[in-house]
Automatic annotation (TrEMBL), chain A:
The lineage of its organism: Eukaryota, Metazoa, Chordata, Craniata, Vertebrata. Keywords: Centromere, Chromosome, Coiled coil, Nucleus. Pfam families: CENP-O. This is Centromere protein O. It is found in: Chromosome, Centromere; Nucleus. GO terms for cellular component: Mis6-Sim4 complex; nuclear body. Residues 46-73 form a coiled coil. Belongs to the CENP-O/MCM21 family.
UniProtKB/TrEMBL annotation, chain B:
The gene is CENPN. Its main location: nucleus. One of its GO terms (biological process) is chromosome segregation. This is Centromere protein N. GO terms for cellular component: inner kinetochore; nucleoplasm. The lineage of its organism: Eukaryota, Metazoa, Chordata, Craniata, Vertebrata. Pfam families: CENP-N. Keywords: Centromere, Chromosome, Nucleus. It is found in: Chromosome, Centromere; Nucleus. PANTHER family: CENTROMERE PROTEIN N (PTHR46790). Belongs to the CENP-N/CHL4 family.
């Protein structure tokens, strides 16, 4: 094997040199252009992103500002709403109080799902007494669903007469009966409670308080109970008796003053409520006492 | 003191439970406080009773006192008797009822004694202008039987009278007559209403069982109960919520919100012809009506009926034959073909 010629020798070396320069040239070619483009590319990207970031930041700030402004408005609205509500609520309370106070007129009512619930508040001499209810169903025919009227008040009679034809009259009639009953009951209760010392034994009464029977005295210090009273209230719409019978059952038949007293008592019971009659007895007794002392 | 009276007092006191002994004796007010204090209430009941009977003997207790004790015992144990209700009526357009309790008592007793010499009548005034009457019936030849008395409760100026169930039906007409005449009424009719619970009977006939009224003073409690139940656990879905609410609403409309009066039974006597779609059945050809008796019993019938539809056992609304009981004031019915 002989190397070819010098050309070849020079050829091999030259060939190697040529290859070397080729290689280094191709390397250069490979590296330089990407580095340049990459740099410029990244740069522009960065610049673009920075731009975007700034834009977004600005938008966020704007939106936040807008929200703050609107919440401030909303709060303002809310406080306005609240104070309006308070005003309405205050009015509502006021209305409720007025509706509750209607009771004091003696006849009030409240709408129900079926009709109306009427409340009759009884009173006597400025004292508010028991309330009675009648729950009416508004239908044809008008009917009473349930009620709290005592069984001895003639509710059936009154409703048979007036409920269908004249409901106003029905209510006023019932009011009359209930108020009269409440008044009579009040007098009897007062007598039993405050003037028991003037009575011999318990007060005889009945459910309607329209028949009262008792034995009494007028002088607190006296030991005997010389008078017997029997009060009849034949008119159930009144609080004063229609019949008064006073009998003297004392032993002292000589003095005519007993007859005078008896007659004056009768008159008193006819014209004044029971407890007032006894208050005047008590006062007279005190006057007597005072006269004895002085 | 009469032997029979002593025995009667002894037996009455023996019935009283130890927990109520002092209360009842105080209500009787026959043995004074200081005497009662000398008695040892911790001893055995029999010996206690002997001591008390001895005290009664010393104080010469009469039949009247013994009868009063019997009334008080019964007032404390009303549910031991079964009570019937009678309704009295007046002629229309009559004068105002001026009821005098003393007149009523004397008139009542007089009417009984005129018809029957052997009778014991005792009275005890009660609250709300009512009177409890105890009647021990005898016959023409026999002394009154103190162990089978009849009790009558009457609220003045009302048309209703409550009587304890009496085995001796023969005396009922006399009792009815005495009640009507003494209370200024004309007619008396027995109602189809019976129960052990006197206050429930009173609530029914006086129409006092529903005392809930809407006023401006009270706030109506909304129907929150059902809704609360429904929403308690959100994992549970009530598929039939609408139906449940409907049932609840219908039940509330029929029975109301108030505690029901207490009855133990409702009885329906049927006398109806058998109605059948099948022709030629054994019962279809029957000309006579079928007679049968249906009785609903419960410790508290109306509350039980009220809970039927919400519990899903019956459809709502319930049959009006069941729901009309307090409104009509009846708990035994006769149903015939029209």
């Amino acid at each position: 094997m002989e190397w070819a010629n010098d050309k070849s020798k020079g050829g091999v070396l030259a060939h190697l040199e040529r290859l070397e320069t080729q290689m280094s040239r191709s390397c250069k070619n490979l590296e330089d252009p990407p580095r340049e483009t990459a740099e410029s590319d990244i740069g522009t990207k960065i610049r673009k992103l920075r731009c975007l970031r700034d834009k977004l930041r600005a938008e966020v700030k704007q939106r936040q500002a807008r929200i703050k402004a609107s919440t401030a408005n909303a709060e303002l609205d809310q406080t306005l709403e609240i104070s309006e509500q308070e005003a309405v609520g205050g009015k509502e309370e006021n209305m409720k109080a007025i509706l509750q106070a209607y009771r004091f007129t003696g006849l009030s009512g409240k709408r129900t799902s079926r009709g109306v619930c009427v409340c009759i508040s009884t009173a006597f001499e400025g004292n508010l007494l028991d309330s009675y209810f009648v729950d009416l169903v508004i239908q044809k025919p008008l009917r009473i669903h349930h009620h709290s009227v005592p069984v001895f008040i003639p509710l059936e009679e009154i409703s048979a007469k007036y409920l269908q034809t004249n409901i106003q009259h029905f209510l006023f009639c019932l009011c009359e009966y209930l108020n009269a009953y409440a008044g009579r009951k009040y007098q009897a209760d007062q007598l039993q409670r405050d003037f028991a010392a003037f009575l011999a034994g318990p007060l005889q009464r009945n459910s309607l308080c329209n028949l009262l029977s008792f034995t009494y005295k007028v002088e607190p210090q006296s030991r005997s109970f010389p008078f017997c009273a029997r009060l009849l209230y034949k008119d159930l719409t009144t609080t004063l008796p229609t019949d008064v019978t006073i009998t003297y059952q004392g032993t002292d038949t000589s003095s005519t003053s007993w007859e005078e007293q008896r007659a004056s008592h009768e008159n008193l019971f006819f014209t004044k409520p029971l407890h007032q009659v006894f208050t005047s007895f008590a006062r007279n007794g005190e006057r007597l006492d005072m006269s004895l002392v002085s | 003191m009469d032997e029979t009276v002593a025995e009667f007092i002894k037996r009455t006191i023996l019935k009283i439970p130890m927990t109520e002994m002092m209360t009842i004796l105080k209500a009787w007010d026959f043995l004074p406080e200081n005497q009662l204090q000398t008695v040892n209430f911790r001893q055995r009941k029999e010996s206690l009773v002997q001591d008390l009977v001895l005290l009664c003997e010393n104080k010469r207790a009469s039949l009247r006192d013994a009868a009063l004790l019997d009334i008080i015992y019964t007032q404390f144990h009303q549910h031991q008797k079964v009570w019937d209700v009678f309704q009295m009526s007046k002629e229309p357009g009559e004068d105002v009822d001026l009821f005098d309790m003393e007149q009523f008592k004397s008139s009542f007793e007089k009417i009984l004694r005129r018809a029957l010499k052997n009778v014991t009548v005792s009275f005890r005034d009660a609250e709300e202008n009512a009177v409890w009457i105890r009647i021990a019936w005898g016959t023409q030849y026999r002394k009154p039987n103190q162990y089978k008395p009849v009790f009558v409760v009457y609220y003045s100026q009302t048309p209703y009278v409550f009587t304890s169930f009496c085995h001796l039906k023969s005396n009922t007409p006399l009792l009815s007559q005495a009640l009507t005449v003494a209370s200024n009424h004309h007619k008396i009719v027995k109602m189809d209403l019976r129960s052990r619970y006197l206050d429930s009977l009173k609530a029914i006939v006086f129409k006092q069982y529903n005392q809930k009224f809407e006023t401006h003073n009270s706030t109506m409690p909304l129907q929150e109960n059902l809704e609360l139940d429904m929403h308690m656990d959100s994992r549970i879905i009530h598929e039939n919520r609408i139906e449940k609410e409907r049932v609840q609403r219908v039940t509330q409309e029929t029975f109301g919100d108030y505690p029901q009066p207490r009855l133990e039974f409702a009885q329906y006597k049927l006398e109806t012809k058998f109605k059948s779609d099948f022709h030629g059945g054994i019962l279809a050809e029957r000309k006579e009506p079928l007679r049968c008796l249906i009785k609903f019993s419960s410790p508290h019938l109306l509350e039980a009926l009220k809970s039927l539809a919400p519990a899903g056992i019956a459809d709502a609304p319930l049959s009006p034959l069941l729901t009309c009981i307090p409104n009509k004031g009846m708990n035994y019915f006769k149903i015939r073909d029209k």
